[in-house]
Amino acid sequence: MFIDSHCHLNYKGLVEQEREVLARARANGVQGMLNISTRESEWDAVIGLAEREPAVWASVGIHPHEADQHGDMTSAKLVEKARHPDVIGIGETGLDYYYDYSDREQQQACFRQHIVAARESGLPIIVHTRDAEEDTARIMREEMEQGAYSGVIHCFTASADFARIALDLGLYISLSGIVTFKNAKDLQEIAQTIPDDRLLIETDSPFLAPVPHRGRTCEPAFVSDTARFLAELKNIEIESLAAQTTNNFFRLFSKAA
């Protein structure tokens, strides 16, 4: 049994074949999927799918790319929407300085609102970071000093130092199909150091299809390929990795259990 801890089922490439995508995932042993929102306009659709489908859960959040378009986003608004029984996480949120689609200060302010919402709701935060390790770490540390919260660094591609910071803060680390890429040697080395009890797996579909599906639209069924690669990398049985990452998911996203 696998859990895809991060996918975008409402995105183009998947939403047009929703039933088929879900059927293929379940046929491939993927028994649960966390469907992630990235802007407020998606919240109702993402929650709606969770209401219709068993073991498909929802998050509410604003991606850093969308921060400029959500200048009025508050922790209170996030907490209110997160009261829905199928919403199990806050995000995705964080910082992305690679594209700078939104002002950096606005990204940081929005990120902090999400952390406050995670703290107040008791739900884990789902963190995106790209080319922004220093500020991401600083904000996470500063906010942790204001009160504990849980969370996961999704689609991890950062440095070993950042991985240690995240783990020291009590966060989980989720690996996507990127870890299977031939040019991902540094990430593969870091993956071997992530404690088994703090590891999640994801697709981030419809993006980042793992080997052997490169070039195709990614979908939750492919999370099993990432799991098999990681099991071999960490020299453990695939059944053990599947069970461990599934247990980790339900420990972190306890509302789904």
Automatic annotation (TrEMBL):
Sample GO molecular function, one term: hydrolase activity
Alphabetical keyword list: Hydrolase, Metal-binding
EC id: 3.1.-.-
Keyword Hydrolase: yes
InterPro entries: DNase_TatD-rel_CS, Metal_Hydrolase, TatD-like, TatD/YcfH-like
Positions of transmembrane segments: none
Source domain of life: Bacteria
Keyword Nuclease tagged: no
Protein family per UniProt: Belongs to the metallo-dependent hydrolases superfamily. TatD-type hydrolase family.
NCBIfam families hit by this protein: YchF/TatD family DNA exonuclease
PANTHER family in alphabetical order: D-AMINOACYL-TRNA DEACYLASE (PTHR46124)
Protein name as annotated: TatD family hydrolase
